Structures are given as C-alpha cells and as structure tokens.
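Lab notes, practical 5.
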Amino acid sequence: MGAEIGDYFLGTGCPIATNYFIYVSGKLRRTVLGGRIALKLMRLFIDWAKANGAHELNVHVTSGIHPAQTDKFMKRLGLQPYGGNYVIKFQS
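Output from the prediction step:
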C-alpha cells in the first residue's frame, strides 16, 4: 500500500489522505487470507488517516480487477463512490 496526507491541490488547510495503491498477491487475492490482508491494510489506512488529522480519505481504484467486488468491499468499510476513472491505453 502506498499513501500520503496532504492539502487538496486547489486549497490549503484541509488535509486529505490519498491511497495510491493497495495490492494483494494474485495467489492470495481470492482466499480468506487475502481478504483479511486487504481488510487489515484498509483499516490501518483509515486509522492512520484519522490519527494524522485527515479531513477526507480517498482511495483510487484503477486496476479494473474485480470492480464489483472492490465496490462492495469499499462500501462495507464506509467509503462511497466519488467520480470515476478513465483511461486511454497507447501502444508502446
């Protein structure tokens, strides 16, 4: 997991915790242990954000891996959808 807390890019005085990635190994992702790892990481992130004065917590989901399950997981943790992700893939 990678994350930071900082001011919103258009203002100051309102720290936002932003998650850049959370990754659980493909071997573990669909197992009980993988679910526990993901849950623990997210709870640690939420607790860390609160303890460090964040006014808001953002999680960016861009992988496209199991989007329906990811949505259900995030909502169970109290997060709500906000905006969306869009991409154009270019050939190398």
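Observations recorded by the TA: Strands lie at 2-7, 15-21, 56-59. The radius of gyration is 14 Å.
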